[in-house]
Amino acid sequence: MDFLPVRRALLSVTDKSGLPEFAKYLADAGVTLVSTGGTKRMLEEGGLPVTGVSEVTGFPEIMGGRVKTLHPHIHAGVLADKDEPDHLSTLSELGIEPFDLVCVNLYDFADAARKGLGLREAVEQIDIGGPTLLRAAAKNYHSMLVVPSPGHYQRVREELAENGMRVSLALRKELAAETFRRVSKYDALISDYLFRTEEQP
Prior knowledge:
The chain has ten helices and seven strands.
């Protein structure tokens, strides 16, 4: 579709700068907010209505947060092609609501590398759910808007305001490309770190 209506958003960020204002803009426009962990707490403290990912999945966050968004009720809602009737029928049959916007940025692995953490500590800063969500949303840009950093919030707000809470295919494609670039750099940073850091006994 050319212009995508934004009605439901998944927000899960490490860098929370600018998010309260962005999330409030979305909520005030009637967008349903779904979130995780610290992001959810921050939004609740700001008085915003927000649904926890665990409420969507029916499963708690486990293993210290290692597993929280890796669930069909999240990823089917992100990966469904809204131009494909079979996809929409599957969502309906399984009681899964689609997402329209994914706003995610990643654990700061670069900071862990700078601090010279041991490998056991450093690998805890390797984001798994974040890149997976980003890649899924970017792949499905025909049906999704992916927002990979706070630097995009203002532009997204402006486009939504200009188009009645809809976002163009051109911007969705541009941010999808930017997302893949960011995830690629993130993976390269981790790979380099693992190659050059010795495992301590």
